[in-house]
Task: inverse folding
């Protein structure tokens, strides 16, 4: 897979960090300089970390493992949701429900409830429900779907989490730590890179930066999925 160029990262504003007064000292190894009170991220380190993360995600996808995409910030939601859907990976872009992973069995019950309501609404003409009941069911389904649609087909815990802004997604990160789940994350200068297994020093506020990093990782996942498919086809051909 072709690496991102420095021009692409500069154009997307990947190098822009936070104000110096908001920085986390543990980000020092990833900071290139300070300019007008704002920290500038070292894109050499970004490129290195991004390659490490992409390779790890590719191997996970090749092994058939699921990577959950997490981005509840307004500017990241649509980007991350579209990216996750393109590789059939679970995602959380509306709100992280407390216990989404540590209390996964309860979350699965909510998903089944949502599916049952959907089925009842689809068969509405065959069951005896009033207009008021249908309206209430429709509203409840919409509420559940908004939060759970990204994990509807997730039957077991994911093998890894990719988080846009680990500072903002601290609840999901804490649950991943508790369960020993691998973590990947876009880490800005106000965050602690030691909190994730694969930190990617980058601007996690600008939509162009989020899109560039996320789509690069998704392309790595696509490569892993294609290799997995080719491997299975080869095994089938040998067996025949």
Result:
């Amino acid at each position: 897979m072709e690496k991102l160029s420095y021009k692409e990262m500069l154009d997307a504003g990947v190098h822009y960090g936070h104000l110096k007064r908001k920085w986390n000292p543990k980000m020092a190894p990833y900071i290139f300089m300070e300019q007008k009170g704002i920290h500038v991220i070292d894109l050499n380190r970004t490129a290195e970390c991004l390659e490490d993360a992409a390779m790890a995600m590719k191997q996970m996808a090749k092994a058939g493992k699921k990577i959950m995409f997490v981005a509840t910030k307004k500017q990241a939601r649509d980007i991350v949701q579209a990216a996750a859907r393109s590789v059939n990976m679970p995602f959380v872009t509306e709100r992280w429900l407390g216990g989404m992973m540590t209390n996964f069995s309860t979350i699965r019950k909510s998903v089944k409830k949502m599916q049952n309501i959907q089925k009842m609404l689809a068969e509405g003409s065959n069951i005896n429900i009033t207009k008021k009941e249908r309206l209430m069911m429709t509203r409840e389904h919409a509420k559940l779907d908004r939060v759970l649609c990204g994990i509807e087909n997730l039957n077991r815990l994911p093998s890894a989490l990719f988080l846009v802004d680990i500072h903002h997604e601290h609840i999901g990160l804490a649950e991943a730590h508790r369960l020993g789940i691998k973590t990947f994350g876009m880490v800005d200068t106000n965050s602690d890179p030691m909190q994730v297994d694969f930190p990617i020093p980058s601007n996690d506020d600008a939509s162009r930066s989020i899109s560039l990093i996320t789509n690069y990782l998704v392309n790595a996942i696509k490569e892993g999925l294609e290799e997995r498919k080719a491997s299975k086809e080869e095994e089938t051909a040998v067996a025949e």
Q: What stands out?
A: The radius of gyration is 20 Å. The domain at 104-150 is CATH 1.10.287 (Helix Hairpins).
